[in-house]
Amino acid sequence: SQKIEQNSEALNIQEGKTATLTCNYTNYSPAYLQWYRQDPGRGPVFLLLIRENEKEKRKERLKVTFDTTLKQSLFHITASQPADSATYLCAPDTGRRALTFGSGTRLQVQP
Amino acid sequence: EAQVTQNPRYLITVTGKKLTVTCSQNMNHEYMSWYRQDPGLGLRQIYYSMNVEVTDKGDVPEGYKVSRKEKRNFPLILESPSPNQTSLYFCASRPGAGESYGYTFGSGTRLTVV
Fold this sequence. Notes:
The complex is a heterodimer. By secondary structure, chain A is an all-beta fold. Chain A has no helices and 10 strands. The model of chain A has no long low-confidence stretch (mean pLDDT 93). By secondary structure, chain B is mostly beta strands. In chain B, strands 2, 4, 5, 6, 9, 10 and 11 form a 7-stranded mixed beta sheet that branches. In chain B, strand 4 (31-38) and strand 5 form a beta hairpin.
């Protein structure tokens, strides 16, 4: 069955450092991969999507990579700030039906 | 403002009393979907709709119904709620199929069934 794995343990980093979050998937052949941010009790907010033919995508301090051979996406936040503290969800997307999300990784940026 | 509106935000109900959670979007999106979120289980898809009068089951459809009579509305119906349906519910929409688009999520409905 299809499976999406994100590190369930919280990631704690110091302000100013780069945070790297991992999303692995199995039994999928997604053409795209999406990343979302979710704050406690709030709906997820779409951040970025990357296509299978794109190795890397950037948006301001965010960078996403997508390796279809490894079946993995990495999500980087450079120069992290306490305001970046949240849970980050990945969602491999075949483009044909509604999204299935990973369970998310909680990021805590310490001042 | 482009948004997905869910109502109510909070709801406490008793077992067996039928309820409806409304969802409306003002972006002319084709895709709409309902998710529930529980601690340790993440977001799980209940039902989704690819367009008016087209709905399909997600991963956890038991105990829920949906309808899509108009493009903008996608209500979630619990005919006979049970305590295991206590959860945080999200409605989401996106433009359509054939390309990948980010979802716009509603603010959520926290449902407690006692």
